[in-house]
Amino acid sequence: MYYNKIRIPLLTALVIMMVLDLTGVIHVPAIIIFIIAFALIWYNIRIRRNASNQNYNNKK
């Protein structure tokens, strides 16, 4: 699916950065983690709204 081409790499990068930060290997500013997390949440909401609008338009 097209949407997963963007979400999966961002989610993977987020998890890797969080794990490396918690283990002390690298230091990632918290703002970077929050920005990526909020971007993923926003993108997921946008995808769901578009899908629901398309289903509603198809029923008319």
Low-confidence stretches: none
- Give the fraction of residues assigned to helices: over 70%
| Number of structural units classed as domains | 1
Could you tell me the strand content as a percent range?
A: under 5%
Taken from the alpha-carbon principal axes, the silhouette is elongated
Q: Report the radius of gyration as a whole number of Å.
A: 16 Å
Strand count, sense and barrel status of the largest sheet are: none
Average pLDDT taken over every residue: 84
The total of helices stands at 2
Order of helices and strands: HH
- How many strands in all? 0
Task: Supply database-style keywords.
mainly alpha, single chain, 60 residues, 2 helices, 0% strand
Give the secondary structure arrangement, pairings included.
Blueprint: H1 4-23, H2 30-59
Helix pairs in contact: 1-2
Transmembrane segments: 12-43
Keywords: Membrane, Transmembrane, Transmembrane helix
Please explain how this structure is put together.
This protein is mostly helical. The chain is built from 2 helices and no strands. It has helices at 4-23, 30-59. The longest helix is centred in the last third of the chain and has 30 residues, at 30-59. The chain crosses the membrane at residues 12-43. Keywords: Membrane, Transmembrane, Transmembrane helix.
